[in-house]
Amino acid sequence: MFTTVLVPTDGSSGAEVAIAHATELGQTYGAAIHALYVVDTGAEPAALETDQRETLREPSERRGREATIRITDRAEAHDLPAVREVREGTPHREILAYAAEQDIDLIAMGTHGRTGPDRARLGSTTERVLTRSDAPVLSVRLGEDSAGTDAVVGPYEEVVIPTDGSDAAERAAETTLDVAEKYDATVHAVYVLDATTYDLEDAPRSIVGLLKEGGRAATDAVADMARERDLSATTSVRRGIPTDELLAYADDVDAELIAMGTRGQTVGSGRLLGSTTARVVRRSTIPVLTVS
Q1: CB atoms within 10 A of CB 47
Q2: How does pLDDT run across 87-118, given as a tens digit for each residue?
Q3: Where is the signal peptide (predicted)?
Q4: Do 140 and 209 lie in a common domain?
């Protein structure tokens, strides 16, 4: 399914873990690795002369060459075809344009884990790519501890698929089950009764029962899809704050991957990222695959 994997990079330390996940999937699928660095020209003063712009951009271009070479070197060391490119422009726009031009099947991006007030939103480039990408996006927490080393990641043997029974969740499940099948992974389908939406303590038992029944039906549907592929599957219906419950569940089953729909909604020229998906991507210490 994945024949081309794009790895956008800003040259950050700790990006090796994102490169490692892209390379792991590249090996599994026999995919070509594309490395892309975008020199952000959006913040440049408009009054700069051409030679001044070139002088200003030179360090970024050099950094981009070094960052993309690091990615292609690793891919080629694993006998994968690899190409690299340094562009100028607005990062998320150039990433999306490159993905469209090259018919990219998967975008693997590093994300910075945030704490405190900074955790209120994703980095603007990551969020914009997640919400606008037609291709699935694998978000990988950048690790400062891995800076300067060749990070090693294992296969995806335990995969969590949150579901709410929606079409977006079904699309995410279908894509993820292809990955799970490649790794002969165990699939864990989970549904969370949202305690922030429903006052479950005071709600009539009949209503809570209907919600649980809907959750069981949704998780059973994913599990059935997995078993049709001869994969082991488990189901779970939980209640609480969705992000907390999903991350706790992933930890409980020692998952190596979480896969979710973005539930994008058209708003003007852009889309909104589902709040639970955004929070999971922000906080997860394991890769999160999002499917539009």
Answers
A1: 6
A2: 999 999 999 999 999 999 999 998 864 444 44
A3: none
A4: no
